[in-house]
Amino acid sequence: MDDRATNDPSAVIEADRAHVWHHLLQHKPYETVDPRIMVEGRGMRVWDITGKEHLDAVSGGVWTVNVGFGRTEIADAVRDQLVTMNYWAGAQGTVPAARFAERLIEKMPGLSRVYFGSSGSEANEKAFKMVRQISAKHHGGRKSKILYRDRDYHGTTIACLSAGGQKERNAQYGPFVPEFVAVPHCLEYRAQEGLAGEDYGVRAAEEIEKVILREGPETVGALCLEPITAGGGIIVPPRGYWEKVQEICRKYEILLHIDEVVCGMGRTGRWFGYEQFGVQPDIVTLAKGVASGYAAISACVTTEAVFEMFKDDTDPLGYFRDISTFGGCTGGPAAALANMDIIEREDLCGNSARTGAYFGEQLHALADRQPLIGDVRGIGLFQGIELVADRRTKEPLDERQVMAAVADCLKQGVIVGATNRSVPGYNNTILFAPALIAGQGEIDEIVGAVEGALSRLPG
């Protein structure tokens, strides 16, 4: 190996520029601009290859590093497990998988079975396959449609994009898998029919029922929703919404699949986002914060009733005929166990609730001072501000200006996120998901950077 690759920053940059295909980025600018390369993280601070320090307000860029960087106890747990037994195919068990599944289920009353994979997209694929196989085995293939919500995101594979409510993420990747059907969003700030509060929450859920009735309840197998819409703009469902959604699913015998890939493991101040709304899902998918990015792991968690539908030894094809190669890597559940230990020991769910409430207060105070902020929304350490050109008309701020504000924050040494080339015409929300260890000092620094950036946008 060329020593320059580890000792010479310019060599690393050139190797990256020449050979790495980055996620979600246009590479044309890299012909003249250096790619950013991150080299170290401690707590909520990260340093790039130039030595510049940043405060990370998005937990590793994509809402993953829930317990912060540099947690040696997680790395040690992974190392110890890998030298003992690094891998075995998921057709058999391993000690960390069994132990983590048990610990996880203790946090999820009403659920009982954990199917391991290696990414959120994979977890959602598993759930979709379960729904389709249940339809084939128990409903003559009729109950195969899967409903998804406008502005929600469930992953990057073709089936997950088929269930994706972000048109710009989906563009150019069709044709998509049939029998995925959209239902309307539930963003109160941009409410259909001008309703508000619980009136709008119930009405938004009733719009789902209209789609079910239009498609035929006997054809709909599952409804897949994020508990809080994440990349589509941090959309917290209004009061009454989730209660009505649960009622509708039970009425028409539709499986409720909640995608907790982002919200799970303490992000909203509870272990899982759905706990904020008092609903009981049939399927829950998890990834990101499960191991805080220290190892790859995802989980598709189901009720015993769902699991039982695949126990039929009279049908040679009746079991769940699925495999995840790296769902058998033991580093994931070992990291997840250590991650869970930290969340419990340091009361990071509680800290997310407390510091998240302070964060929301500071963002509302900023909105009082800054007319470009049309709406503030979020729960726990999951917050967003929707930027508008005109508060009265709610005209969205141009995406280029939103990204200019994000770039300004980066120049100040604070990394924030934004809806970017996802929802046509509404890529105007700045997104925050700092690690669950965040304190008021870090929140003040984030809010201060955003205020400075917005104040410098052209009028």
Automatic annotation (TrEMBL):
Cited PANTHER family: AMINOTRANSFERASE, AMINOTRANSFERASE CLASS-III
InterPro entries for the chain: Aminotrans_3 (IPR005814), Aminotrans_3_PPA_site (IPR049704), PyrdxlP-dep_Trfase (IPR015424), PyrdxlP-dep_Trfase_major (IPR015421), PyrdxlP-dep_Trfase_small (IPR015422)
Pfam family, one: Aminotran_3
GO molecular function: pyridoxal phosphate binding; transaminase activity
Protein name: Taurine-pyruvate aminotransferase
Family: Belongs to the class-III pyridoxal-phosphate-dependent aminotransferase family.
Superkingdom of source: Bacteria
UniProt keyword terms in alphabetical order: Aminotransferase, Pyridoxal phosphate, Pyruvate, Transferase
Originating species: Pseudoroseicyclus aestuarii
Cofactor(s) required for function per UniProt: pyridoxal 5'-phosphate
Entries under SUPFAM superfamilies matching the protein: PLP-dependent transferases
